[in-house]
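Write out this protein's structure.
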Amino acid sequence: QVQLVESGGGLVHAGGSLRLSCAASGSIFSINVMGWFRQAPGKQRELVAAITTGGSTNYADSVKGRFTISRDNAKNMVYLQMNSLKPEDTAVYYCHVYANYNNYWGQGTQVTVSS
């Protein structure tokens, strides 16, 4: 089993910044993709950003140029630096890891951006 623990969510004014962190632990023998998804009220969960073990990244068009994903392979951690936040970024953010040939999800952390 793999456990994911997120931190770093909160309330911020529009234009502000937040940094999310996610730590993976447990019986890990292989981690491939790590990433972040988000789900706003009444909407489907969507990919925000993902990063492979080799450092290749993928971003949703809505966050390109504002968010940066990074990871520390030695520590099994993934980060999401969010700048120039907008009210439409308000959502529960979920850490996702594809490890041991399975998908794992964190419990979610709330990000609220006030206008």
